[in-house]
Amino acid sequence: MEKINERKYRGLQVLFEKEVSDFINSRRMLLLILFMGIMTVSGLYGALSGIEDAVSENTSFIFLKLFTVSANSIPSYNSLMALLGPFIGLIMGFDAINNERSDGTLNRLVSQPIYRDGIIIGKFLAGCFIAAVMVFSSGILVGAVGFLKTGIVPEAEELGRVLVYLCFAVVYIAFWLALSILFSTVCRHAATSALASIAVWLFAAIFISLLAGIIADALYPLDGMNAMLNSMDNHSCELNLNRLSPYYLFSEAATTILSPSVRSINAVTMVQLSGAISSYLSLGQSLLLVWPHLTALCAMMLIMFALSYVSFMRQEIRAN
Amino acid sequence: MDANKEVIISTEGLTKRYGDVVAVNNLNLEIRKGEVFGLLGPNGAGKTTTTLMLLGLTEPSGGKALINGIDCTKNPLEVKKQVGYLPDNVGFYPSMTGRENLRFIGKLNGLRGVELEERISLLLKRVGMEEAADKKTGTYSRGMRQRLGIADVLMKDPQVIIMDEPTLGIDPEGMRELMALIRELAEKDGRTLLLSSHQLYQVQKVCDRMGIFVKGNLVAYGTLEELGAQIDRDGINTLELSVYPENRRFQELLAQMEGILEVEKQNDLYIIRSSYDIRRKLSHMLAENGYTIMHMRISGSDLDEIYRKYFEKAGETDGKDKRKKIPRTAGAV
């Protein structure tokens, strides 16, 4: 038994190493670094130019503001990550399996004495690894430059929050990676799977919020008298539909983690608010608030990966 | 091939169905150690499916395949350790060099360090790819990829090598080298080779025995001589004939003759298939009617002829068998 485990591990390890070195040596990686670099720089630029105004309003948790403050037309680092982070996953995964197939390397690979699932697991883990390295280096860069530029010494809690936020971002990107790997097993051509992944991304980032509004209005109309009765249901329904989108889920969770002043994420009645003390939440409490989000994101990622795993394992390996 | 040698690949009633289509039907095959076996058949005959089942990459619908006593379906990992597979149109990672590609496969097979590097150099030399070894495989020609593919297969030092259409798209010189290498692998190294191909001549030259595959059925197998003999027993004679003058009356005379199954005209040559040897009767009849025989030859002993005959035979019976075959295989589930 031990021997079998060791062998499985060996195959996976070799595949993982190969995938990582492939990514690092590819032109795609340059593109990703460029992409990530622009994201980091513009987020940082926005934060540094807007932080003065933000600090004049409120002086607590200044370090976290580096990630959430936007200025003029430049969005904050956090919203850039929510919007563009998926691309990192999509770019790494969209041709994972179908490229092997069209290059004719898949037949060769599956005829080696390794477990077949090692191939897809290796690709996924390698992608996650690269994503984690990129996200953390970019996040740490923002923190470090902000620290040098503004001279703000971060508190331990702030560091903890940033760390948790970056972990969220990695899971978020891993979801998109798993999604694009799924498309790459299902679609024969890399171009098809790239288009399909981008379509899902557009839907999750833009269209689902429009759709959620329409559905909520249809289910709980807000015209005339109904407005009194339905406004709460309408809001919750729209919110819950929006939360189906990983984009919204991540944005909400990230905002909560990075802004200790966010005390609730659902609609709250005045009755519930009576007697509440207006203070900041501790990290633990913020985490508790978005724990379902983290669970849902992880579940979505795992479901996507499980689907691609199953479809890959069930696929016939044929000569092209 | 001497029959005492131990059997290394065997299949028992191996069957694969895709829905209603029977890709491989009840295949019983035995291949002996150190033998070069050719699996011949047109495209879509089920050759690739058979090789995939032998590697445990496709699950058979019925029957089983054993390589070296290991069940290919139940224990594919062990089989893959001992069997090298050269797929049809082999591919490599285009951004890696030939050497890096081999290194990757070697690592997957558990080789490390000096042993790995030595084996890579040795194999690159053996297939004559030393000069191109450090170029990216994206720049390789078809023939170079094929040669690197053989080195790749040999990385795991397999006892059995399965090659799917190895001769496709290679120039004549490359072909000659490939054939020599295949013989060498069998004779010098004592490996067993299974080639699948639809290109008869190359296979004919290099194989000890061959099996002919038509629409999922193995219609015949044995040495070239055995196949030829089998055809004769089955009682189809093929005669090439050309006469002067060639006119309508001649065709009518042919049509009237007993024993002729089919007449086909190829340019000025008539191909006559008959149930027995009609040469005597035919020449007699032609002489009586004032024809001069320009050319008359019994064809049949080369593989091309054998191959064609089997295809025709199988094609003929296939139409009749179809109705019978489906309930029979369905019953076997």
Detailed description of the structure:
The complex is a heterodimer of chains A (320) and B (333). Helix content of chain A is 79%, strand content 0%. Chain A is mainly alpha-helical. Chain A has one domain (2-314). The longest helix of chain A is centred in the middle third of the chain and has 34 residues, at 117-150. The two termini of chain A are 36 Å apart. Chain B has 333 residues and is α/β, with parallel strands linked by helices. Chain B folds into two domains: 7-222, 3-Layer(aba) Sandwich (Rossmann fold); 231-299, Alpha-Beta Plaits, CATH 3.30.70. Helix content of chain B is 40%, strand content 28%. Chain B has helices at residues 47-54, 76-82, 98-108, 113-126, 142-154, 172-187, 200-206, 224-233, 248-256, 279-288, 303-331; strands at residues 7-18, 21-32, 36-40, 62-67, 70-71, 83-86, 160-164, 192-197, 209-214, 217-222, 237-244, 260-266, 269-274, 292-299. In chain B, strands 6-7-8-3-9-10 form a six-stranded mixed sheet, sandwiched between helices. Chain B has a four-stranded antiparallel sheet with strand order 2-1-4-5, covered by helices on one side. The two termini of chain B are 36 Å apart. The A-B interface holds A 7, 10-11, 14-15, 18, 22, 25-26, 103-105, 107-115, 316-320 and B 48, 52, 55, 57-58, 77-78, 80-81, 83-85, 87-96, 104-105, 107-110, 149, 152, 156, 164.
Features:
heterodimer; A: 320 residues; mainly alpha; 13 helices; globular; B: 333 residues; alpha/beta; Rossmann fold; Alpha-Beta Plaits; 2 domains; six-stranded mixed sheet; four-stranded antiparallel sheet; 11 helices; 14 strands; 40% helix; elongated; disordered C terminus
List strands and helices in order, with pairings.
The complex is a heterodimer of chains A (320) and B (333).
Chain A: H1 2-25, H2 27-57, H3 62-68, H4 77-93, H5 96-103, H6 105-110, H7 117-150, H8 156-186, H9 190-219, H10 226-242, H11 246-258, H12 270-273, H13 283-314
Helix pairs in contact in A: 1-7, 2-3, 2-4, 2-7, 4-7, 4-8, 4-9, 4-11, 5-8, 7-8, 7-13, 8-9, 8-11, 8-13, 9-10, 11-13
Chain B: E1 7-18, E2 21-32, E3 36-40, H1 47-54, E4 62-67, E5 70-71, H2 76-82, E6 83-86, H3 98-108, H4 113-126, H5 142-154, E7 160-164, H6 172-187, E8 192-197, H7 200-206, E9 209-214, E10 217-222, H8 224-233, E11 237-244, H9 248-256, E12 260-266, E13 269-274, H10 279-288, E14 292-299, H11 303-331
Parallel strand pairs in B: 3-8, 3-9, 6-7, 7-8
Antiparallel strand pairs in B: 1-2, 1-4, 4-5, 9-10, 11-13, 11-14, 12-13
